[in-house]
Amino acid sequence: MTADQVAELMRMTLREALLLSAPILVVAGISSLLISLVQTLTSIQDQTLSTVPRLLIVSAVLLAGMPWFLHRLIWFTASIMNDLQRFAN
Q: Are 36 and 50 in contact, with CB atoms under 8 Å apart?
């Protein structure tokens, strides 16, 4: 396996990791911003009020997006396995 092949494989892997983590990170960031805004406006500084809703929202996104996440992972794994001979030189 040459250095170019390793770089291409790493690029493909990092691209899939970015695609899979982006929805979760975006939802977590937006929910954190909104929860912090509500806490600032109401002057409530309890840590439980910021942590629990964020965990519930991220968990809901993970459960709702799980079929898509698994489909992408299975597709990526199958494409790597199909191209394995190209990387095995």
A: yes
The answer to whether 31 and 54 are in contact (CB under 8 A) is yes
Helix (H) or strand (E) holding 27: helix 3-42
Are the C-beta atoms of 16 and 72 separated by less than 8 Å? Answer: yes
Query: What are the two backbone dihedrals, phi and then psi, of residue 29, each rounded to the nearest 5 degrees?
Result: -65, -45
Whats the size of the chain, residue-wise?
A: 89
Amino acid of residue 65: G
Per-residue pLDDT for 31 more than 90? yes
End-to-end, the C-alpha distance of the chain in Å comes to 5
Average pLDDT estimate for 41-47: 82
One-letter amino acid at 72 equals R
Average pLDDT, the chain: 90
Matching residue, tokens 């929860």:
35
